[in-house]
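Dear U.,

Please find below the material for section 3 of the report. The protein was modelled together with zinc ion; I have listed the sequence and SMILES used, followed by the predicted complex structure.
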Amino acid sequence: MRITEVQVNLCEGGEDRLRAYCAIVIDNEFVVHNIRIIEKAGGLLIAMPSRKLTVKCRHCRMKNPIDAKFCMNCGHECDRSDTTRQGETKIHFDVAHPINPVCRQMIETAVLDAYRGESGQVAEKAVG
Ligand SMILES: [Zn+2]
């Protein structure tokens, strides 16, 4: 597997720690959108595309965000007792992600190199 293209959309003035949204193209054939670059503890990390978990309302079967307090459809209080493990509720899960450290490293390197190049270009334009 090779990453043949990385698209970077810089986020300026957005969420505090969110630096960019990226998409990677794999082997010129498959694209993964919504990879985020986040600044944390002075370093950059990437977050794979994720989706917010939902839970079905016991009264009307409407799907609600797992951290919702009340059903968006019927207004009943949401029961979250079965979704909490070790005192912490898992709110997001990755839609697509590498399954070994070598692949993770390859994606991180490609994405962060592209981000550094892109943000460098922006800085040069601002100076000029
Ligand atoms: Zn409901």
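For the text of the report, you could mention the following: Residues 36 and 47 are 5 Å apart (CA to CA).

Regards,
Y.
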